[in-house]
Amino acid sequence: MGNMTRKVIHTEKAPAPVGPYNQAIALGNLLFVSGQIAIDPSSNQIVYNDDVAKQTSRVMANLQAVLEAAGAKFENVVKTTIFLKDMNDFATVNQVYAGYFDPENAPARACVEASRLPKDVLVEIECIAVI
Q: What is the pTM of this model?
């Protein structure tokens, strides 16, 4: 890593990690945000088990909390990866997701269907930002 400083980012406004990882790592001017799922940080419980739109909104709120803890916003995001339980949910997730990014400056993105996601959620999103 040379002379780059590695900093752990943590906020109570986003769910605590469900495993041996951190919410985000800042390295130099890059921020690597761990995948967020639909956990309500106040209850630490999965929410909206059968509603992918509401789960996506919760995921985006969790991402926003981690970004803000690092001094970033959605406009700083340069790459996202979306993991879906069912690719048939693509249009619904896309509609919610689009509300957080200016179409002209939206980040690069990948979207994949996964056979199973943590805690059996419907969607997980991770991102990389420049801070």
A: 0.96
